[in-house]
């Protein structure tokens, strides 16, 4: 007769998972990731290593630069979504349950690269000439 499988409580499984994740992020490839890393962030880091993704540095008006990872053939819309996810994760880690209105942000600001507005959400970043480690900036829209 087979022995009954040991059942672990959810908290125990979570603890085991967190311990395994902590060991995983000690790997030189993943050591830049935060301790509360998400599986999505690990996937992005691996994609970067294999050349399947790129980092776009998004510069805010206050001078802060946010490294955002997107796939190589990403569109402007995919960059915007990745930026939103980056900010949400950062806020969650800093304990801020602060809500941002992204609808307001995109109504008020443009993303620009080399002086050109990234106006078409469907257009690929590379069509604007954006490559790995390039900087994209937030520019306030002028009132009409």
Low-confidence stretches: none
Question: What is the general shape?
Answer: globular
Task: Name the average pLDDT.
Answer: 85
Q: What is the spatial order of strands in the main beta sheet?
A: 2-1-5-3-4
What is the CA–CA distance across the termini? 79 Å
| Content-based structural category | alpha+beta
Corresponding CATH superfamily of the largest domain: Phosphatidylinositol 3-kinase Catalytic Subunit, Chain A, domain 1
What value does the Rg take, in angstroms?
19 Å
Number of domains: 2
Secondary-structure element string: HHEEHHEEE
Q: Say how many strands there are.
A: 5
CATH C-level category of the largest domain: Alpha Beta
How large is the share of residues in beta strands? Answer: 15-25%
- Tally of alpha and pi helices: 4
Main sheet specs: 5 strands, mixed
CATH topology name of the largest domain, in short, is Ubiquitin-like (UB roll)
- The percent of residues in helical segments reads 25-40%
CATH architecture label of the largest domain: Roll
């Amino acid at each position: 007769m087979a022995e009954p499988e040991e059942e672990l409580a959810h908290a125990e499984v979570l603890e085991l998972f967190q311990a395994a994740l902590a060991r995983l992020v000690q790997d030189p490839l993943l050591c830049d990731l935060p301790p509360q890393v998400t599986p999505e962030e690990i996937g992005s880091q691996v994609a970067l290593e294999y050349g399947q993704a790129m980092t776009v540095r998004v510069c805010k008006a206050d001078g802060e630069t946010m490294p955002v990872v997107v796939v190589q053939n990403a569109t402007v819309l995919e960059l915007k979504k990745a930026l939103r996810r980056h900010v949400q994760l950062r806020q969650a880690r800093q304990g801020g349950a602060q809500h941002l209105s992204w609808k307001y942000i995109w109504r008020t600001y443009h993303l620009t690269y080399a002086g050109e507005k990234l106006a078409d959400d469907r257009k690929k970043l590379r069509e604007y000439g954006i490559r790995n480690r390039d900087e994209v900036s937030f520019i306030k829209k002028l009132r009409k």
